[in-house]
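Reviewers of the previous submission asked for a worked example of the structure-prediction workflow described in the proposal, so we include one complete record here. The input consisted solely of the amino acid sequence. No template or homolog information was supplied to the procedure at any stage.
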Amino acid sequence: MKWQTKPGLSLILFLELVFLGAGIIFFRDSSKNTISGLTTAATIWASAGVGIAIGYGMYLIGITSTLLIILLLVSHHFPFFKTKYGKGRNKM
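From that input alone, the workflow returned the following structure tokens.
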């Protein structure tokens, strides 16, 4: 079958992640118009991208992206970002 080639499997994975990501993102409280699940959906997309890169044999890109993803997910715990971009900032 033609869809079993690597680009075909990547396309199928992409389409599955579209539905999975859309199911994760939802409104938590409609009165406040808050949305939750964006970070989780983005992390799933990024993990799939790393998996595709590793599957194609691009190990350096996969490892580099993994380290960058971990840095970005952990960076909101750094004190510098908490005061500059977090809850302590002035609202306009």
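The first strand starts at residue 26 and ends at 29. We consider this example representative of the routine output the project will generate in years two and three.
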